[in-house]
Amino acid sequence: MIVGRDGTTSLIPDGIDATLVLVRHGESRLIVEGRFQGQSETPLSPTGLRQAALVAERLAHPHDAPALPLPEGRLRELVHSPLCRAGQTATVIAEAMVPRPVSRPEPGFLEIGQGEWEGLHRDEISERYAETLAAWRRTPTEAWAPGGESLRQVAARVRPALAGVLDTLAEGGTPGSLDRNQVAGYGDETPETLPWSIVVGHDGVFKVVLLTLFDLPLERFWMWTMDLCAITVVEFRAGRAVLRAHNLTGHLAALLDEAAQEAQERRSRSGAL
């Protein structure tokens, strides 16, 4: 049994040998408009749907070069936030997987509630709530959006949701060992037949998930970057978490190429009659 920094028992099951993949949702319409989302319902934009398709293709063929550090075992489940932008992304991923995985919403992975800030443009928030916004960015455990959730409230709901995902991964798994090499590139890198799961969620809540898994204080909230439809891979060995990859976005390169091509075409047309 591993005891956390604050004296609580680790939620990572003893002996678990499995992998968890975190995927942030695609671009939403409120993101395009520059508005704070929080728990507002906002669908994916056309770009967001394209991002979802690209990350789905990557996860459906994880061992194509350059390979993702994922096992060859069965995908246990695909869990997602109930908000539609995460649900849409999860559906696109599920449809690309063979066989199609079990999929379920998990309220514990809802984005951080932003109260009065939800739906407001970032410039309006900066003007109307300058002091609170600055305090939130400086000391995120001591300040938050009026009417919104504190990080401690978020952590309290994330913990049981995350424990449920890990317990499912641990069921029927092979007991892990820390004797295996934990440095990528050394030893046997052949993908193993071990279980893995995907969680599709949000920037803020995934920051809390990672802090929880690695037993870091909530004050370190801003240390993590979670880009749209990026992939983060956490491996579990003998009750410990190992960060194998974080914020991978190479699978989205096609979108950048398309944007560059469109920009070039606009420049070419600018002088046309």
Structure description:
Residues 176-188 and 267-273 have low confidence and may be disordered. This protein has a 6-stranded mixed beta sheet with strand order 3-2-4-1-5-6, sandwiched between helices. The chain is of the alpha/beta class and 273 residues long. The chain has 8 helices and 6 strands, in the order βααβαβαααβαββα. The termini are far apart. The longest helix has 20 residues, at 151-170. The protein has one domain (17-269): Phosphoglycerate mutase-like (Rossmann fold), CATH 3.40.50. It has helices at residues 29-32, 46-60, 84-96, 122-128, 130-138, 151-170, 203-213, 253-269; strands at residues 17-24, 75-80, 103-105, 196-201, 231-237, 240-248.
The CATH architecture is: 3-Layer(aba) Sandwich
How are the strands of the biggest sheet laid out side by side?
A: 3-2-4-1-5-6
Distance between the termini: 74 Å
What composes the largest sheet? 6 strands, mixed
According to DSSP, the number of beta strands is 6
Q: What Rg is obtained from the alpha carbons, in whole angstroms? A: 20 Å
What's a concise summary of this model?
The chain has 273 residues and is α/β, with parallel strands linked by helices. It is built from eight helices and six strands; from the N terminus they run βααβαβαααβαββα. The protein starts with 16 loop residues before the first strand and ends with a helix.
